[in-house]
Specification:
The structure is a single chain. The protein is of the alpha/beta class. Helix content is 56%, strand content 12%. Helix 19 runs antiparallel to helix 20, helix 20 runs parallel beside helix 22 and helix 29 packs antiparallel against helix 30. The longest helix is centred in the N-terminal third of the chain and has 18 residues. The two termini are 44 Å apart. Keywords: Repeat, TPR repeat. Pfam families: TPR_12.
Amino acid sequence: MASVSESCSSDKVLSFARKDNHFGAYTLIWLDSLINSPKYIDKQKELRLSINYLQTFDNVDKCIKYIQSVSSQHRFIVIVNDDFCQQLIPEVHRLPQVFLIYIYCEYKPYDYQLYKRYSKLKYGYNQFDDIINRIRSDRSRRIEDRHDQPMLISIFNSNNNHEQSTTEIDGQFVQSQLLIAALLKMKTTSTDKNEFICKCRELYKDEKSQLHFVDEFERDYSSDFSLWWYTRETFLYRLLNKALRVQDIDLLFSFGFIIRDLEKQLRQLQYSSPIHVYRAQLISIEELNVLKDSINKLISMNSFLSTTRNLKLALAYFDPSTSDDEFQRVLFDINADPHQDSIKPFADISKISVFQQEEEILIMLGSIFRLINIYCDNNKIWHIKMNLCSDNQCELQTLYSHMANQYDSSSTKLTLFGSVLIDMANFNYAEKYLCQLLKQISSEHKDIYKCYHALGKVSFEKGEYETSLIYLFKSLEILQERRSNDSRLAYIYNSIGEVYQKKNEIKEALQSYEKALYIFKQTFADDHENIAWCYNNLGIIYLEQKKVSEALQYLTKAINIKQGKLPDGHPCLGNTYNNLGNVHYFRHEYKQALEKYQLSYEIFKKSLTPRHPSIARALKNIGVVYEVMRDFTEAKIHYEKALHIRQQVFKPEHPDLIEISKDIERISLNIQ
């Protein structure tokens, strides 16, 4: 059994490889077999003056694989030599991350038939300087408007119509709101700015133009100038929006103090009367179709939203040639009323913006809107009408508030951030930040027991059960040394019981759960949700012991309390419905088991990130029922969905991943 210090010291655990180290809105890709020849070295330097993020390739297959490997939230501008056109373009043209393709035809005329077949081929040139000039021109326009950059949108579907395609991102909506709330709840420390600057120096070490801005930021930045810095075309704007689009956890953590400064300044400048604003945007056909299916639903813009009061100015950003088979022109038409309670701030920043002529109204990160209507006008512009919502008025408020309140704002910011990451199933990142905290605080720090407890939960989720017990018993030991005899001990006993249960050490699990229940009963009323948590866990143990009536008794107690105390859609309800499904399955009541598992699945989808292991567990259980009912095709479909989630979260040696792989192998034999 490894020691605590050993399990936190491994650099391998804490290393995170980046697929893309370019942190601007656009990455320029140049594919040419002679890319490294002296002839093109100077041209590369020229391009870097226009766009800082240049990736070069001399092999078409490697170029294709790179483009395909990067998130669709990125945007690529591609330069390709005519010799590689026929190989590259058919493979990458339909990918959303490919925005424009420039063809360089040095020795042959441009193929206009190719241009007709592929809409993203806007230009063909036989002089490379012409390409550089065109990129500079396009770059200048993008700097001004920023409206062809991808948006990060989450949609909350409250009508529980399971046929809607958007239901699968409900949980992402809630979790994105919780992550933003955690970033805002953290307290800024004296080291935040210096740590951020060090990270920026590393990211931009080869880009002198951006390092100049980093130096200026270090010298001049203050919280009351955060909005001015955000509006400038520098590393800060590009890096923050890239981090938000691709959900780069490390960068978002580093940006925490700036996000808090921006929110504070927006509140200070809050617009005082109802306003009508617009935003021109290019979005993909797929994104537009999702929005069309989301009328009267809630939408969260998980980025700062730049808008203008001037309709003519918004429309002027559209190029008539930009609508094609891949991207459509849309105009967000937004009503915002600051008189609503608990509304996220929005402000007229035109007087402090670098771009004063834009009449910009900036809307806070994470603002929630109601999508009212979508229609296409005679100019082939899609109008998307939305109302900015009060956080208190939207349907998910009860669920969101209850989940947000579980995070202790008095904790250190690393403990708080780690807890949020665990709930988002970002276990490696959670481990990274919690181990970082262990190195920073003394053994006497008030939060050290929380840190060990959280690391125990991370190790449990990763299938590292022995390590989990080390952390949990260390947390328990610290509290006992402090002569604590309150509910904090009970939380740890419950976690210990969960590990023993996974190890199939049922006697030890039962003892831990009973200790937790005893302590909770000294502190809380009989109908408290923590009591229900213990009843739920005891029900699982009694089912493991084949004491079905006792299991059903405890699980029924648990669900009755939870239904009275928890909002609809809370994941703790999903856990107990799943366990009630297990009771029905054990009793060969397969129809009832399937109903409970499906109910559990729908709850998890509504409240958890799509990659959460609890969703995979519900999918697997649904598959088990279909398998026993000899519907092998449906069983395999659900097993494969569970496998897909577990592959995103777990290492190959995780017991749950091994188990689901065997399930698929077994069921495949029956289908053949």
